């Protein structure tokens, strides 16, 4: 079994930087408005009473998490790579490496 570099420690250390990254991206007018709306809509859904009842095993607890992950993936996937790298560097995260073409 191989162990991934960083793990929980890296997640905890980078948490404030990730929050700052999302804040900067939400305030940047170059980020598509619909991508922002999807992310904010998922946040509103997470705190709204319109939810799968929590007493349903597994699904009740995972619906918010699943929607949040899908929204984050959509949001980040619709930001141009150079723009995302610019903001990542500004908050002290490593810029994106060369990856296959993004949306």
**Which secondary-structure class do the elements indicate?**
mainly alpha
Distance between the termini: 34 Å
Helix and strand sequence: HHHH
Q: Proportion of β residues? A: under 5%
Helix content: 55-70%
Textual characterization of the structure:
- Helix content is 63%, strand content 0%.
- With 103 residues, it is an all-alpha fold.
- The protein has one domain (14-90).
- Helix 1 (7-27) packs across helix 4 and helix 2 (33-47) runs antiparallel to helix 3 (59-77).
- The model has no long low-confidence stretch (mean pLDDT 83).
Quick recap of the structure?
The protein is mostly helical and 103 residues long.
Notable characteristics:
103 residues, 4 helices, globular
What is the strand and helix layout of this fold?
Layout: H1 7-27, H2 33-47, H3 59-77, H4 81-90
């Amino acid at each position: 079994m191989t162990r991934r570099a960083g793990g929980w420690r890296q997640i905890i250390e980078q948490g404030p930087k990730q929050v700052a990254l999302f804040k900067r991206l939400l305030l940047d007018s170059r980020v598509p408005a619909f991508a922002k709306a999807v992310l904010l809509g998922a946040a509103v859904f997470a705190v709204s009473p319109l939810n799968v009842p929590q007493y349903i095993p597994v699904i009740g607890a995972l619906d918010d998490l699943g929607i949040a992950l899908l929204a984050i993936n959509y949001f980040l996937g619709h930001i141009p790579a150079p723009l995302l790298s610019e903001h990542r560097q500004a908050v002290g995260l490593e810029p994106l490496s060369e990856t296959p073409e993004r949306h």
